[in-house]
Amino acid sequence: DGSPLEEARFDGACGVAAWRDELLAADTNNHVVRRIVLDWTCSMCTSSCGDGQFLEGTCANGSTFDGKSCLECGAGTFKAGTSAATACSPCPGGTYGAYPGASSCEVCPAGRYCLNGSVHAHSCTENASSAPGSDEEGDCVCDAGTCRNDSRVGVTQTVAGGRTCPYISSTVQYCSGMQGFVDGAGERARFRFPFGIGTVRESGTASADSKRVVVGDSDNHAIRLLDCATGNVTTLAGGGAVNVGYVLVGYINGGASSARFNHPYGVSAAGGMVLVADSANHVIRTVSLVTGATTTLAGHPSAVAVGHADGAAEDARFYFPYDVSVSDDGSLAVVADRGNHCVRMIEVSTGIVSTLAGPSWALSRYYPGYVNGFGSFARFNSPSGIAIHQSSVFVADTNNRAVRKVEIATGRTWTAAVTTIRIYGIALSPDASVTYVSSQAGILHKVGNDSLSLTVLAGVRSDNYWNLGYADGAPNSARFDRAYALAVVQNDLILTDSYNHVVRKIRIGSECLPCPLNLPGGEAHKAANGSQWQDQHLTNSSSNASDASSSNSSNLSTSNVSHSSTSNTSNSSSSNASHPSTSNESNSSTSNTSNSSSSNA
């Protein structure tokens, strides 16, 4: 034992394991386990510092000492004063920190609320306001003349994409979506197996909320933008028809119209850019929200280069990455590397990739499982959805039928929720108190951390095909056909209903609506007359909830006339070859430990 390192001696060192900044070595013939320190730390001194010591009190405002050097506090945290011994603290409720390196946090502006550790401020619902410094959604008060109402919570409506209803009776309405590749508003827009979805968050702005979402339009091989307020859809990058029925697919970096993707699935936006899990290219791409310019952040697209490898940019390897989520400040991204059954982490500024949890070796695709633990000891089975929230990562562990939670600092993995059906997408409320997950036929959710159970929010809890369909309306009436990705946009849960080729929304929060009968409104009215308002409004809301279906069916002729032949044609063979339906429907339970490669192909 001892130092310098070259003087250490072993006798038959046969195995090593990495743990944080150390290696553990099995020194076989010495019958011991040895520890090798890989990293160094500094101790602090007050004067006359020697080697390996760091002068206390020299870290600037907004930075702290991490044992090696002074580092900036992350976004959502702050540090006042120059003492290197003082740690960065989360911005308290009622304030936010949009930029790293802050010595103080900004006061939450009026009309918004800021949770503890917020990078952005969250907007109150429409027709509601709040005082500066508000620290919870409950501080948002309905404006005069409006009353808070919950009667439309759980109602599903279509935001964009067309449908046709070949059979309608007084009791049954059979509908299906209309696929294609068309920009436009509402029913005029067309998607082809939309998969990923993410809210658009602008770094450095007071509000985290936006009515825009970005969509990974899988079989159009394009990245689309959707304004949820208007239903207007535009193409940000990729896609485009060469001949009738064929959509441009491939791997090209460049401008919006020249960029090419191969089944882009998960998408996440922050800091003026979109991160894309370009699944069949086995890479993570970045797209400018302003210009659509596309580059590769990490991975290599060559078919012979797929697999698992950590490292910088092109040295890294993925195997069918399904989803990606970027931190609020845009500095860190996490990836659900489905084919490798693990969770990866990317430093966005450098493209350096590491494995946060799950197997971390070249043949990891052959090692699915279900194990809680630290780092590479944890096991997943085809993780498909991922969401980052402050210091934690939430994972939709598809074939394990569970929500897993991973601690970013240590890689510690545990089970946060379980269900009896496969789950695919995952989203969180702003404070992470509510977890939403998607399944083939319905949307599930869990409130709080006291229970592992997931309850049905809309649709049905089932993997059976006869429960799939297309219907807007009340929670138990809504039907979906492979609901995949989810995103919270203010009081709505936005989702991709992939096999119906549409984007839909579920109301998840109360709203402030005009009061009936000339009642005064405001929050005072809620306490005295809220139940009267809600009972009377139920009749109106039920008719409002069906507006989407009635408007969809009434406008079908217009949509069909304006829809080009390109939209009505069937998918090309390349699209069908690696569409997620193959893996989702053929994967068996957790005991299927070696089907990752074939099922994803």
Write up what this structure looks like.
With 601 residues, the protein is mainly beta. The chain has seven helices and 46 strands. The strands form 15 sheets. Strands 20-24-23-22-21 form a five-stranded antiparallel sheet, with no helix packed on it. Strands 29-33-32-31-30 form a five-stranded antiparallel sheet, with no helix packed on it. Strands 34-38-37-36-35 form a five-stranded antiparallel sheet, with no helix packed on it. The chain is globular. Mean pLDDT is 80; it is low at 521-601.
Helix content: under 10%
The end-to-end span amounts to: 50 Å
Instruction: Decide which structural class fits the backbone.
Output: mainly beta
> Which term fits the overall shape?
globular
Number of separate strands: 46
**Uncertain ranges:** 521-601
Mean pLDDT: 80
Proportion in β-strands: 35-45%
Which strand order spans the largest sheet, edge to edge or round the barrel? 20-24-23-22-21
- What's the number of helices? 7
Largest sheet: 5 strands, antiparallel
User: What is the C-alpha radius of gyration, as a whole number of Å?
Assistant: 26 Å
Q: Briefly, what is this?
A:
The protein is built from seven helices and 46 strands. By secondary structure, the chain is mainly beta.
